[in-house]
Amino acid sequence: MASKRRQECGSADGKRKKKSCPAEAAQFGSAVEDEQVKRAVKEAWSRRSPYSEGDLELDCFPFPHCIIKNFLSSEVFVENLQKELLGLDFHEKSNDLYKFKQSDDLKKRTEPHIAGLREGLFGRFRSWLGEVLGVELEPTVDISCARYEHTDVLLCHDDELEGRRVAFILYLVPPWQSSDGGTLDLYSINSNFQPQSIVKSLVPSWNTLVLFEVSPVSFHQETVLLEWVNPAYLDISYQEQIQEEFEDSSEIQLKDFLKEEKFREVSEALRLTEIEWMRKGPPNKRCYEAASLDSLPPCVKACWELLHSEAFFLLLSNFTGLRLHYLSTGSSTDSAANASKEKEPSIPVCCGEVRRWSHGSYTLLHDGEAAQAEYALDLVLPFGCTDWQSEFGGLTCYVANEEDEELLTIYPEENSLALVYRDKETLKFVKHINHKSTSAGSSPCRGFYDFSFVYYE
């Protein structure tokens, strides 16, 4: 078969007629075809941990991205693909963000190698991506060819478009080095969630595919989440499960939320460090202690900053479906909130405290920070409450206004992030903490600490 000359496409009499050549099947390299590698990449991606095997490299700094060399297994196929692409008509595209030449959409092209690549991307590779990322992808793929020449440019952007989940680039370039330009630059971000500086540059390489998951901030995932939060909660598919459960009940508890070493570090600092605690009153509303933020040790301050960072607002939006930040795409859990007018882009709003609970601490129903808002999301993250018993008190109880029956009770639990969505007619209080012992001869219950925040849509 290899010695036979391929029949030219077209009519037998040589007249030009629109007749499609059969697509040449695109065969992917071993990095995509190996089932063991696929399982390992899926696990590493979900845990936001690096992974490398053969031609595939997954890196999570500054955000998860995957590099696959020798993406297509046949060198002849890649060369013919390049020839077909270079034969297309290209259109100049130029504005403040970019300047380059681009082909029309390749969805309807009939050239055999372009058609073969398209079928492979739409089929087997889309299935591979869906399994690796743990998401269900739409059956269509936007695909075009871009040609960059001297002085062309594409500036910093986030690739976020409505419905887009994954972005990828397949490089078909001659031998290349960084001095030639055209590197794919990845940015770190500042405290305002904006791109700050280039921390990694990828040099284009022949038959190499680069892909990354798209989010409203995909040019700069906030690394503080990767540092503090249990990787399981950064898995997009798991976030979708959490959101479904939260939308059903308007509350959820996320166990083992912080990484174990971070939780342990904060727990010890709260217990051992000299922190300035201030008594909160008046007694007809509340009685507990709150930390002076200026006196917090570094690790506790860092945890505080995590919980009111813009990155965390976006994470909460994914957990709850609430629109807690203008970059989020969530819809409110409560239909009445959906009826409110469209919000303008704004800075997230929240208030919070680091609290210490001990014998005699409590809050009463008059205590309502969220009374100013129609809806609010409560967050509580406890520390130092191992073996806490309900008879000790310290439970957070929710009741309807002017009603005695408790709607919901949240028990203090180590490293368990409690989220509760409520309207202004739902009130909360923390039950009085006493010194009741669990058995004869046992020591009285100790107090505990928590981070408490209220977030407003």
TrEMBL record:
<dbReference type="GO" id="GO:0031418">
    <property type="term" value="F:L-ascorbic acid binding"/>
</dbReference>
<dbReference type="GO" id="GO:0006449">
    <property type="term" value="P:regulation of translational termination"/>
</dbReference>
<dbReference type="Pfam" id="PF10637">
    <property type="entry name" value="Ofd1_CTDD"/>
</dbReference>
<feature type="domain" description="Prolyl 4-hydroxylase alpha subunit">
    <location>
        <begin position="63"/>
        <end position="230"/>
    </location>
</feature>
<dbReference type="GO" id="GO:0031543">
    <property type="term" value="F:peptidyl-proline dioxygenase activity"/>
</dbReference>
<dbReference type="InterPro" id="IPR039558">
    <property type="entry name" value="TPA1/OFD1_N"/>
</dbReference>
<dbReference type="GO" id="GO:0005737">
    <property type="term" value="C:cytoplasm"/>
</dbReference>
<dbReference type="InterPro" id="IPR051842">
    <property type="entry name" value="uS12_prolyl_hydroxylase"/>
</dbReference>
<dbReference type="InterPro" id="IPR006620">
    <property type="entry name" value="Pro_4_hyd_alph"/>
</dbReference>
<dbReference type="InterPro" id="IPR019601">
    <property type="entry name" value="Oxoglutarate/Fe-dep_Oase_C"/>
</dbReference>
<keyword id="KW-0847">Vitamin C</keyword>
<keyword id="KW-0223">Dioxygenase</keyword>
<dbReference type="Pfam" id="PF13661">
    <property type="entry name" value="2OG-FeII_Oxy_4"/>
</dbReference>
<dbReference type="GO" id="GO:0005506">
    <property type="term" value="F:iron ion binding"/>
</dbReference>
<keyword id="KW-0560">Oxidoreductase</keyword>
<protein>
    <submittedName>
        <fullName>2-oxoglutarate and iron-dependent oxygenase domain containing 1</fullName>
    </submittedName>
</protein>
<feature type="region of interest" description="Disordered">
    <location>
        <begin position="1"/>
        <end position="22"/>
    </location>
</feature>
